[in-house]
Amino acid sequence: MNKIFYIAKEEIKILFREKIFFTLLGVFVVMSLISSFLGFMATNTTTSIYNSSVKFLIQKGINNIPPNPMLSFGALTDFRNIIIYMFLIGALLAVVIGHRSFIRERKSGVLPILFSRPISSNTLFFGKALGIGITIFSIILSAFLIGILSSLLLPYRHLLFDDILRLIIFYIFSFFYLLFFGFVGLLFAIKTKSESLALFIPICIWVGISFVLPEIISGQNPTALLNPIAMGQVQVQNSVFFSLMQTYLQPFSIGGQYTSFALQLINNTSQTSLINVILNNLSNITTLFISIIGTSTLCIYSINKNNIGKDEIYE
Amino acid sequence: MKFMNNVYQVITVAKKEYIDALKNRVFIIFVSFLLILTFVSIIVSSFDFQAKVISYQTALAELQASHQIIQNLTAPEFYPLQLLRGTIEYIEIIGAILAIVLGYLSIAKEKGNNTLQLLFTRPISKIKLFFGKFLGNVLLLTSVSGFMFFGIYLIISLIGKTVITNIEIEKIFLSFIFSIIYLSTFFSISALLALIFKSLSNSLILSFVIWIVFVLVIPQIGDTLDPDNQVPGGLFNKIGITQKSDQLTILKDFSSYEKARDSLEQSSFTKHYERLIFALLGIKDMYNGKTINFIINDKNSDILWLVSAMILSSTLTSIIFTKKKLINK
């Protein structure tokens, strides 16, 4: 057990020394910081446009005006952009963390030395996994704290207890989503002989999960899925093709499942209770856990099978 | 004679770049991925259109059966080039990654294999080497884009059994040319970072950070800040202001917000590429059926941005390539 903790500790120490990690982390933190501000700005401007529209309609003699649609959204709606940044930058950051954690050892050639010590492949994996997990957790925690802090700074948009609870559930789910990508990055850092390929393949997988599968299932264009409002409006198309795709590919669409659950938590327009949101998404949560267990099993298998200590890696 | 010799040297380097990339597994994986996605996207779009037609026919039949007014129901119109929206978005996303791969490999293979020492024993200058590399990779991007756009043409005209007019062919051709310019920019950025950074993997990660910011994050912010995107179905539709002129009158008071939002979008050259191609292919409804001259005139600022980004990035790369000490002893 001590060995696992030692490997994890070293992992975190080395990662936090890397400039490139800090660059990516910086982009993520900045985006987390401005995401609630962007949401607040958009909500505020839309409300002002609504008020101007009401004046315009009254001047035209129309009095039967629908209520402001923005009022049906809670303060938590201002956080909806964070779903996208978690989905984009967070996932890329996680891939990089997983990738760096193994490539570094392979490049420096310390793996044969490491395996000359009484350390098993399983210990090595669990140490790395713990290191990746703690790093991702600290990133998620800082994003959460930034979110809470920024909500306190924004006028009239303070979060209620239920909102904070929803936000906590969202960040916990996001942690596991990023952990999955961290393990994907780790898996290809173990398996692939080329350093660039070890980074490109997880990015291909990420593009597939984030854009391709949701498009095939819903018929939505790739970038339409980056708009939290458009994502919430995705409807199952009235077609045999999309019904088939929905049936067979939905279980693999981890990205689509993540955004769907996240939107139900944060962009809760249907006023569904938190417990019901969780119960409705049990299958999504299960799929994510199965994916994490699957990738970690593959990582352990690859460490054992590839005898990576003897391999060389090239650019 | 000297000029011909220079041209020969540049072409030789370009040819080597081209052949090397074709032998590279990473490149082949990405090209295959891009091509598959292109075709999948067109097929998905055609199914999507088919679904809309079925929905329309069902609604029409229901209204007719209950003897209700059918004038308010708009039939979906088929414009073959509009099926390319997903494909263009994949060029923006995956095509850019492909260009990053090429830029990275072009420099990484020399740095990693230490072949520059050998190369500079030959009488070849750095600038010729750069031109050769740039030419070879741009030709490669041209081949990939050409293959893709030709495939698009074949799918729409043969499988879709749609007659593509000469103007539409010209529009596809122009989209192909602008796609090469767009991809070449990413090639240059990636090569530039690979040249600047000591660690190749750091340069690659930074290329991805730039890619994610310009291709996905900035356009996403611009899109989500759009007031009409805040409410499902659109704010104005929700409160019954359907006339465009009325909407514009109300939005006059919010011009500074809209200006800031637009400026943010404009800072991404991907957005300029998207606006230009969406106009050319009529994906943006207001440009559907318009002449090429009209579109080019209306979109000249996007063209200028796109071309400037390509010139700037390739010039910077050439300067660094020629000035930087490439061989570390």
H-E order of chain A: HHHHHHHHHHHH
Cα end-to-end separation of chain B? 35 Å
What is the number of beta strands of chain B? 0
Assembly level: heterodimer
The SS-based structural class of chain B is: mainly alpha
Shape of chain B: elongated
Largest sheet geometry of chain B: none
Please explain how this structure is put together.
The complex is a heterodimer of chains A (315) and B (329). Chain A has 315 residues and is mainly α. Chain A has one domain. Chain A contains twelve helices and no strands. In chain A, helix 2 runs parallel beside helix 5 and helix 10 runs antiparallel to helix 12. The longest helix of chain A has 41 residues. The radius of gyration of chain A is 22 Å and the shape is elongated. Chain A starts with a helix and ends in a 9-residue tail after the last helix. By secondary structure, chain B is mainly alpha-helical. Chain B has one domain. Chain B has 13 helices and no strands. In chain B, helix 3 crosses helix 11. The longest helix of chain B is centred in the first third of the chain and has 41 residues. The model of chain B has no long low-confidence stretch (mean pLDDT 84). Classes of the chains: A mainly alpha (315), B mainly alpha (329). The interface between A and B is large, with 67 and 70 residues.
